[in-house]
Amino acid sequence: MKTATKLLAIVIVINALAVTQETSVVRLDGSTIASAEIDSTVTRLMKAAEVPGTAIAIFHHGKIAYLKAYGFRDKEKNLPLTVDSVMYAASFSKSVFAYMVMQLVQQGVLDLDKPVYEYLPRPLPEYPKYADLAGDERYKRITARMLLDHTSGFPNWRWIEDDRKLRIHFEPGSRYAYSGEGIDLLQLVVETITKKPLEELMQQYVFQPFGMTRTSMIWQERFESDYASGYDEYGRALGPDKRKDAEAAGSMVTTIHDFAEFTNAVMEGKRLQKNIREQMLGAQIQIVSKHEFPTMSEETTDENKGIRLSYGLGWGLYWSPYGEAFFKEGHSDGWMNYTVCSDKPKSGMVIMTNSGNGEGIFKELLETLLKDTFTPIEWEGYTPYDKLPPRPPLKQHKQVAVAGKVLDRYVGRYKIQDIILTIRREGDHLSVQENAEPKQDLLPESEVDFFSPSSGDAYTFQVDSLGRVTEVALHLDKDLVFQRIE
Question: 206, 198 in Cβ contact below 8 A?
């Protein structure tokens, strides 16, 4: 029995809970695919690419034709992923935020082309988060339109910069460069003019009207009954993403059921006048970059001219024989998501995974289940799982014993820009927590060097000549150095 149980635990479980499950689904080209082939395709790809859990929604003529979850939300506990399992949405947040913002535009609360600094009670550089912009008057030219179509000139995140400072890289409005910083600035503006916090606005304008009862910009206690954990490329559990602070650029948690309802609402244009929806899904800027990331790369290409790759307001756009399509990706450690819809036939697909390997199955899922061969896979960076180079072996760490008094001196908070690491003592080791994200154990491999057994992250504490701990470095491609603040 024990052997049978172990074998059962590694089999990908197909969750039978499906809100809509047709016996066959009509694809973009008019052909059909049987539900059994959908199931076999998804489960085969998940096994081959080592993806613990996948949830999909397929749309046909503006209706949810297929909705199903596969695999595990928690593979250690053998808990199946369901269509109501709360998953981290990552940058899906941006498109939902944009939908809320367009309703404010419709109401006359926000003008897309008015410089956003004019909505604020004091100059933008007087806000601590934007002090780096002092002396660069170009911030006065940035509008809500530029923030939504990613032409502000901001990097994706300031911490990518060598000096971790926010700067404007090019004339606002002149080129596309994806930016979470830009969405965060628009959040500040929207919360200022409405005098309401983001979570309340999203509930009012999107979540409640569309019946998204298991969606929020911050973690809710009611989600505890059914939520998914994320897993990295090596299959190590990263846990759920339980944010305490609402961030328009990427704090949303949702379910495949809820996000399918939202996507359907976008196709139908619910709560938006026709002209407002047309602005949102109208091409604002042509995209000529070779890849979406890194955002500030100056490498260009004509490869996507044929599909007229461009950006609207909160959504990427391209054209195919089936007309305009709008798309959005969501990418974070342990979570890979993608949605694409062809607007005229109102057909499309949402894919959500709880795995760092999730993007490796997107191409085949789109081509087989939807007959979508037009999504700019290379520009997106969605390399198929069987075309990826071998994963480098994990660095081997060995835990050593460190005296409690040594561990105690590292306890405190460390900061770089708006990211705060909280270090705590946990018996014979430490833990680290980034802002409101789940904490990770840190095991010592020397008196100053520590590693996370779940993610492989490595840290080194710096001690000055007086024995004071002044900073901690997180070793990534390039070190992130956090200064001690308490």
Answer: no
pTM for this one?
0.91
Nearest to 199 by CA among 220, 228, 224: 220
Residues 336 and 46 sit within 8 Å (Cβ to Cβ): no
Q: Using the 8-state DSSP alphabet, how is residue 60 labeled? A: E
Domain that holds residue 86: 2-98+196-387
Residue with tokens 């956003």: 116
pLDDT tens, position by position, 268-326: 999 999 999 999 999 999 999 999 999 999 999 999 999 999 999 999 999 999 999 99
CA atoms 292, 298, 303, 304: torsion sign = positive
CATH number of the domain encompassing residue 285: 3.40.710.10
What φ, ψ does residue 348 adopt, rounded to 5°?
180, -165
| Same domain flag for 338 and 460 | no
The residue among 340, 321, 322 whose CA lies nearest residue 330 is 340
Q: What percent of the chain has pLDDT over 90?
A: 87
Q: How many domains does the chain have?
A: 2
Task: Give yes or no for a contact between 66 and 35, defined as CB atoms under 8 angstroms apart.
Answer: yes
Mean pLDDT over each residue of the chain, to the nearest integer: 94
The predicted pLDDT at position 20 comes to 66
Contact 131, 124 (CB under 8 A): no
CATH number for the domain spanning 448: value is 2.40.128.50
Hunting for tokens 């995140």 — which residue is that? 157
In a domain? residue 123: no
